[in-house]
C-alpha cells in the first residue's frame, strides 16, 4: 500500500519580489506550514561531484543556516550512520521529468514513512544531492533537495538550482546578502571573498536555501 505524494504543480521556477535574496527555483507547499513540523532530520547530502568533502560541507552549512531561522528542531544524520543505512532509502530520485519538476518520488510506502519516523526520531526528513560543484575561479554549486512530512507523506518543500559565481544575478545577490548580513564597512572585500572561498560561497548558498523555507507573512 502506498501513500501518494502530491505532484509539484508548478510550471518553471518560483519567483517573488522580496526584500532579501532567495533562490529562484523552489516549491513551498501552500497548504502546509513548515513551522508546524516539530523536528527535521537533515540527511547528509548525496554527491554527484568529484569533490568528496563538498556534501559534508554543504550539509553543515545548511544545518547552521536553518538553525538561525528557528523554524523547527534539527538533527544531522550522516550517511554512514547505522540508523540511516538500515533504512536503505535513496537520497535522490534522479533528474526532473515533465510531470515531476523536482525529481520527487511519486510515492512512499506507509512502512517507509513509519520506519523513517521511528528510526530517525523526527517528523520530517530533508534529503537531496549536490548535483555539481566547481571550485575557484568559477565557483558553482548545484543542489536538488526535498523536505517530506513523515506524518502524512506530503511534500513540504523542494528545490533545484545551480549557483554560479559568474552569473550576474548571483553576483548581485551576493552583494545584497552582505548588505543585509554585515554591518561593517568591509562589505566589498567580503563580497570578493565569497567568490574565491569555497566555504564562504557555500554559506551564501545555504543562506539562500534557508530563506526559501521562510513562510510569507
Characterise the protein shown here:
It is a single chain. The chain has six helices and nine strands; from the N terminus they run ββββαβαβαβββααα. It is globular, with a radius of gyration of 17 Å. The strands form two sheets. Strands 2, 3, 4, 5, 7, 8 and 9 form a seven-stranded mixed sheet that branches. Strands 1-6 form a two-stranded antiparallel sheet. β7 (124-134) and β8 (140-149) form a beta hairpin. The protein is of the alpha/beta class and 217 residues long.
What topology emerges from the helices and strands here?
Blueprint: E1 2-4, E2 26-28, E3 39-43, E4 46-47, H1 54-69, E5 73-77, H2 82-85, E6 107-109, H3 110-120, E7 124-134, E8 140-149, E9 155-164, H4 168-181, H5 187-194, H6 198-212
Parallel strand pairs: 3-5, 3-7, 4-7
Antiparallel strand pairs: 1-6, 2-9, 7-8, 8-9
Helix pairs in contact: 1-6, 4-5
Give the CA-based shape: globular
Largest sheet: 7 strands, mixed
Q: Report helical residue fraction.
A: 25-40%
Q: SSE order, as H and E?
A: EEEEHEHEHEEEHHH
Question: Taking all residues together, what is the mean pLDDT?
Answer: 80
Can you give keywords for this protein?
about 220 residues; alpha/beta; seven-stranded mixed sheet; disordered N terminus
Summarize the structure.
Helix content is 31%, strand content 24%. The protein is built from six helices and nine strands, in the order E-E-E-E-H-E-H-E-H-E-E-E-H-H-H.
Amino acid at each position: 500500500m502506498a501513500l501518494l505524494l502530491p505532484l509539484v504543480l508548478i510550471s518553471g521556477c518560483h519567483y517573488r519580489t522580496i526584500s532579501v535574496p532567495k533562490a529562484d527555483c523552489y516549491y513551498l507547499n501552500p497548504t502546509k506550514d513548515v513551522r508546524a513540523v516539530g523536528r527535521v532530520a537533515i540527511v547528509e547530502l548525496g554527491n554527484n561531484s568529484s569533490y568528496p568533502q563538498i556534501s559534508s560541507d554543504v550539509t553543515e552549512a545548511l544545518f547552521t543556516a536553518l538553525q538561525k531561522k528557528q523554524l523547527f528542531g534539527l538533527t544531522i544524520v550522516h550517511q554512514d550512520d547505522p540508523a540511516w543505512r538500515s533504512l536503505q532509502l535513496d537520497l535522490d530520485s534522479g533528474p526532473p521529468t515533465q510531470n515531476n519538476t523536482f525529481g520527487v518520488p511519486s510515492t512512499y510506502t506507509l512502512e517507509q514513512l513509519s520506519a523513517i519516523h521511528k528510526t530517525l526520531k523526527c517528523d520530517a526528513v530533508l534529503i537531496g544531492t549536490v548535483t555539481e560543484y566547481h571550485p575557484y575561479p568559477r565557483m558553482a554549486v548545484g543542489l536538488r533537495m526535498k523536505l517530506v512530512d513523515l506524518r502524512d507523506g506530503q511534500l513540504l518543500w523542494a528545490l533545484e538550482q545551480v549557483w554560479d559565481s559568474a552569473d550576474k544575478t548571483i553576483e548581485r545577490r551576493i552583494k545584497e546578502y552582505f548588505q543585509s548580513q554585515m554591518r561593517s564597512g568591509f562589505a566589498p572585500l567580503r563580497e570578493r571573498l565569497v567568490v574565491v572561498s569555497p566555504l564562504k560561497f557555500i554559506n551564501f548558498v545555504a543562506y539562500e536555501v534557508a530563506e526559501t523555507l521562510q513562510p510569507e507573512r
